[in-house]
Amino acid sequence: MTIEIRGLDVALGGRPVLKGVSLDVPSGSWTAVIGPNGAGKSTLLRAVLGLVPSRGGITLAGSDLAALKPRQRARLIAYAPQSPNIPVGMTVFDYTLLGRSPYIPHLGRESARDRAIVAEVLDRLDLTGFASRPLDHLSGGERQRAVLARALAQQTSVLLLDEPTTALDIGHQQQVMELVDQLRLSDELTVVTTIHDLTLAGQYADDLVLLSDGRVAAAGPPARVLTRAAVEEHFDARVHVGAGPGGRPILSLERPLERPLERP
Ligand SMILES: Nc1ncnc2c1ncn2[C@@H]1O[C@H](COP(=O)(O)OP(=O)(O)OP(=O)(O)O)[C@@H](O)[C@H]1O
């Protein structure tokens, strides 16, 4: 489903956080929102979800998102937040089952199908062995996968992921990114993710949106957005940008002084 954002303004605590943000996310594409700390990346996702008041237009497949009831919206857009509330004592299975809430009738119970969907998602995320463990007894990375599981169990056309890989080891980063990519291709999901790892963003996303101080500073294919000059200007970092597979950029930090690898 195509997402169109036009002239989006968000103010939090009386301070402008997003200023006239416009962007198009084509149906079935993966867009990564990058930018320095505090640029407004999480706020952009939260505005799409209607979790923060905003001015401007956000449409999903041409329909105004503001006109949808929360339950309708939850059948279209799933969200994996950066710092979710973790209910104490709730098991991974029951937490993932919360993703089925938009489909469970009021005062009703989940169906066998809901439980089967949860079991399948847990399997895809290597979490079957954790199903009966309380979430607050998991490591940060295991918990992060459970939060993603809950979003996937929602079976929506749009997936918004806030920093989905920060707590993950390199193997699970690859696993999660590959899984999201597979789902996007097999189920035609539209994915928007914030992400700090610029190389990872450039490896997977079709388009990058560089947010800086609440504005879109650059948008387009990774090789066009991730330039040495842009990274220096907006992140105040010195990097070398090389060309990886498919011409996608690979970034490595450049230290100010060359240091020998081994002590003499
Ligand atoms: N509830 C709030 N009230 C006031 N200011 C807020 C609130 N939430 C966020 N902000 C401010 O809005 C700005 C954007 O925050 P946001 O979390 O969207 O940034 P971000 O780009 O996701 O940052 P990070 O990379 O550090 O996660 C920050 O300056 C932050 O301090």
UniProtKB/TrEMBL annotation:
InterPro entries: AAA+_ATPase (IPR003593), ABC_transporter-like_ATP-bd (IPR003439), ABC_transporter-like_CS (IPR017871), P-loop_NTPase (IPR027417). SMART domains: AAA. The keyword ATP-binding applies. It holds the Pfam family ABC_tran. It comes from the Bacteria. GO terms for molecular function: ATP binding; ATP hydrolysis activity. This is ABC transporter ATP-binding protein. It comes from Actinomadura soli.
